[in-house]
Design goal:
By secondary structure, this protein is mostly helical. The protein contains ten helices and five strands. The strands form two sheets. A three-stranded antiparallel β-sheet has the order 1-3-2. A two-stranded antiparallel sheet has the order 4-5. The longest helix is centred in the N-terminal third of the chain and has 46 residues. It is elongated, with a radius of gyration of 30 Å. The C terminus is likely disordered.
Length: 258
């Protein structure tokens, strides 16, 4: 009757040595990958900086080129508008030569000026299109045209400052809100109706939204208190208009005159 032999110390040592060799080989491969990525990153940084410096004039003066450059940065995980308080942000600002940052921060200052100058008229809610028009009229020092995309990115650059500026969409129109107050659903619905029709009345809201008169009046009162609508008492029924024209975004809204 044969007797089974147990695993000897020699076999154990061989397994232990093999495991150690695999671990060492894995570390070598990992280090090689890190070195390769570091080399590729250094090349990429050099090329990106060269591209930004070479095309700095086009980046500042051509909205389409600037938008394409910003999209390229976003696609590869680079945020040229990162906060200056962020170490990584400083790094990219330095690498890009400041051409992108300077433009958007300068534009952000103009956006803030426009929003503050018109806040008494519109309650702190203004369309991107109107802001762009006002900025272009007094765009000294920005170096050329601006686009809606530029305005959106400029507002985004204000976020780390806790400024209260934010983008909101009413219907299909993008608006800049320069006050910290959030719009509730009813307020957004009424503003969307005004965007499509040009104005609303209490009877329009009641007949087409199925709201009680008290609900309609409450929403209107809230919008009036924030200067988001103006009153026209010349008509047979009081009408409520936007303080500034909100262009039709092409959306549909189920409201018609009763």
């Amino acid at each position: 009757m044969s007797k089974k032999k147990g695993v000897g110390l020699a076999a154990f040592d061989r397994r232990h040595l093999s495991t150690q060799q695999y671990a060492d080989h894995g570390r070598i491969i990992h280090r090689q990958h890190i070195d390769e990525l570091s080399t590729q990153l250094a090349i990429f940084q050099s090329l990106l900086a060269h591209f930004s410096n070479t095309h700095s004039t086009a980046i500042r003066s051509d909205p389409s080129f600037r938008a394409a450059f910003a999209r390229m940065c976003n696609a590869i995980g680079v945020d040229p508008l990162a906060s200056s308080s962020n170490r990584k942000g400083n790094f990219w600002a330095e690498m890009l030569g400041g051409s992108v940052n300077d433009f958007y921060f300068g534009l952000a200052v103009r956006v803030v000026e426009v929003c503050r100058a018109t806040r008494a008229e519109n309650g702190g809610l203004i369309s991107v299109k109107e802001v762009r028009g006002r900025v272009e009229k007094g765009a000294g020092g920005l170096g050329g045209e601006v686009s809606d995309d530029d305005i959106l990115r400029a507002v985004k650059s204000l976020k780390p400052l806790g400024s209260g500026f934010a983008m909101v969409t009413i219907g299909k129109t993008q608006m800049i809100r320069s006050v910290p107050k959030e719009l509730n659903t009813d307020q957004s619905t009424v503003l969307e109706a005004i965007q499509i029709l040009g104005y609303v009345t209490l009877s329009l809201l009641q007949a087409n939204l199925g709201w009680e008169r008290a609900r309609s009046q409450t929403v209107i009162d809230d919008l009036l208190a924030d200067s988001l609508v103006w009153v026209d008492m010349q008509a047979e029924e009081t009408e409520y208009w936007p303080p500034t024209f909100i262009p039709d975004g092409g959306g549909e809204f189920n409201i018609s005159s009763p």
